[in-house]
Design brief:
It contains five helices and ten strands; from the N terminus they run βββαβαββαββαββα. It has 231 residues and is an alpha/beta fold. Helix 1 (33-51) packs across helix 5 (212-230). The chain is globular, with a radius of gyration of 17 Å. The chain starts with a strand and ends with a helix.
Length: 231
């Protein structure tokens, strides 16, 4: 079902899955192009959660998905505020964050936090810089941390307009560490985790993809986690 939520900057779309009663999960997609590459996986995972009796929602963030807000006009604080509004719209949900989504769930009121393959903001900025160098080999750095660009300064990476008002906070951002928290990763990821799963990092592929087997495994883990938190 297509729903919506309101935040201080306007109204954004939100997909809803599962029953009308019981616990609910609100998911935060990865950021930038990684969101497009993993959206099918996340939707498959949320549909699998619905089959397990867990309701869920997938909100678009301003400047992402179907949002009409230009990406170069949003900040990290906007994303965090919008996600917090989506969570509040749903009552007191559990949050599920994938990759850079763990940078926008900060401050959201929720019962628990489940995170998959989190990444810090500096890594995302480096990835944007590499994408920029492919198309613009002689282009300067996206941001120069040694200097302060005027507020509202625009730049671009891989065809996406960006603002220094987003990039400067993003490069210092670290993933959400809310408690209670369950941290999960792929088996190929050497980082610490409560659980690891077989699968490929779809966010690294050139085109959007899906992994229904991984989606089912993640849905099983989220459902068990949510029920343990619900008591």
């Amino acid at each position: 079902m297509i729903d919506h939520y309101d935040w201080a900057g306007g109204r954004e779309a939100m997909l809803r899955f599962g029953p009308d009663t019981g616990p609910v999960v609100v998911a935060a997609l990865p950021l930038f192009e990684e969101a497009n590459r993993t959206r099918a996986l996340v939707v498959t995972m949320l549909r699998a959660l619905a089959e397990r009796g867990i309701a869920s929602a997938l909100p678009d963030l301003p400047g992402q998905g179907e949002s009409v807000v230009p990406t170069e006009e949003v900040t990290l604080a906007d994303w965090q505020e919008a996600f917090g509004a989506a969570a509040a719209w749903l009552g007191n949900p559990h949050t599920v964050a994938i990759r850079g989504g763990a940078l926008v769930t900060l401050g959201a009121r929720r019962k628990s936090s489940w995170v998959f393959a989190p990444v810090d903001g500096s890594t995302l900025v480096r990835d944007l810089q590499r994408a920029r160098q492919i198309t613009q080999p002689n282009a300067p750095l996206l941001i120069d941390l040694a200097t302060t660009a005027p507020a509202g300064t625009r730049t671009e990476a891989a065809g996406t307009g960006l603002s220094v008002d987003l990039l400067h906070p993003l490069v210092h951002a670290i993933p959400d560490r809310a408690t209670p928290n369950r941290l999960t990763r792929l088996e190929s990821d050497p980082g610490e985790a409560n659980a690891k799963f077989p699968g490929a990092p779809l966010w690294r592929r050139a085109e959007p993809g899906n992994d229904p087997t991984l989606a089912e495994l993640l849905a099983d883990d989220i459902a068990a986690w949510v029920r343990s938190c619900e008591g």
